[in-house]
Prior knowledge:
The structure holds two protein chains of two kinds.
Chain A: H1 7-12, H2 14-48, H3 50-65, H4 69-79, H5 89-114, H6 118-126, H7 131-162, H8 174-185, H9 188-218
Helix pairs in contact in A: 2-3, 2-5, 2-7, 2-8, 2-9, 3-5, 4-5, 5-7, 7-9, 8-9
Chain B: H1 2-19, H2 28-34, E1 36-41, E2 50-51, E3 57-58, H3 60-72, E4 75-80, H4 86-91, E5 97-103, H5 106-109, E6 112-128, E7 145-149, H6 154-161, E8 166-170, H7 173-181, E9 187-191, H8 196-199, E10 207-224, H9 228-243, H10 246-255
Parallel strand pairs in B: 1-4, 1-5, 7-8, 7-9
Antiparallel strand pairs in B: 2-3, 5-10, 6-9, 6-10
Amino acid sequence: MDYTFQFGIAFEALPQLLQGAVLTLELGILAFWGGALIGLLGASMKIYGGRLAYGVAQGYVVFFTNTPALIQIYFLYFGLPEVGIRWSNETCVLIGLTLNAGAYLTEIMRAGFLSVHRTELEAAETLGFSRFKQIRYVIVPHIARYIYPAIANFFIVILVMGTSVGAVVGVDELTGETINISTKNYRWLEMFTVTAGLYVILTFIASISLALFGRWAFRVKAKIF
Amino acid sequence: MFKRLISLCAVAAMAMFAVSTAADARTLDEILEDGTIRIGINPNFPPNSSRDSAGEWVGFDIEIGNKIAEMMKVEVEWVPTETPQRVPFLVADKIDISLGALTRNSERAKLIDYTVPLHTEVLAVLTTDKVTANKWQDLNSDEYTLANMRGNWTVPWTEENIPNANLELVDTLADTVRLVGQGRADAIVENIDFYMAHTKNYPDVKWRVIEEPIFVAYCAIGVGKGNADLVEVLNIILYALHSDGVVNEIWEASYGAPMLVPVVPNPYF
């Protein structure tokens, strides 16, 4: 083998890679929570919203779960300027990932809604709870516990990894930063090996944080990995 | 939990080891014995290489690749390689040679070998009438955003020589031109010959080229490190193609104009 590995060059680039890792985490967290809010709204519309609301939510879910996030981001970044809307690349990636996550989380949360025991809802109705109060005090605490492990898993698998598509439209998250540095030092193998390790660390940190948060907030014994 | 973590770390370590394995380049004998040469080309790079409406590869690199294969008496296997993938594909022995306007520079030469030059490229500025700059140095201001592609050697060059301008990096030539066409960026500092074909997608944009070129660079064929026999054969083929005027003919047919700075053939390699 003629190739001589030089990992020193890759480790010298760690400060830049860590900057990219921070942006990856920021995008992942913001898109995840944005998606969770959309998911909550979407699930509510599908279950309680009547025919029109159901149709709107279903159309959104079908569109965003059947097209790749990359194409959605491409549309936002390169398509919208043709009609005069010009958002920054980071904004396009954030909106794209949020909408993509929202569609998947709509279905995950819908499953959570349907898991609520009818007797609990009847009790809430008997106590005179409005629909909003039923969602706020009965349904959300229940589904938070029921679907939290699935949602935490979704965050790890889809969003931390999904942010890497941002590199295609010039966002310097971890993958983009790796490509940038490799362009200068041509040490692709070393750079991507180190980056792979950083992604593992990143997902490990995110996994532990989500597990601890789940135990604190919802008393959920979420698994780490 | 920790069993899972240990398992995951083990898998990650094995994956990294697998990813980090560089392969020996196929020798000339192996290529001849196989009867096929694997040529890396950029799939979205008109007029160098792209697919026509029938799905066939066309362009300058395709013609050159076919000539090389014909003179070596082998078949061609075209391997699409985006700009940032050219050197890694050679290092990993995914391709035998790389076309795609691979500019010679010393950093790349530490990892791969080059033939003699195939063609030149003139670094210049492609912009629009919205930009009043008349010299490339005028772009050195944070009021300007320059579009470029990840993987181009001109990216670090721009960071060094036009440090105050903002850089927006995308993945393809078409996207780079689109950034300027849509007003996301102000100019492209690159070998603009390669980008001109994409400007026709924006007929309402008043494109202009800053007259004064920055400098001339040389693009050669990339070959796996230490593959001296293959380099020697390719050098002899290229000398013949340059001497017979074939390279310039193909260039003119592809670009609609002669190479701005033609390669002078030299029989001594």
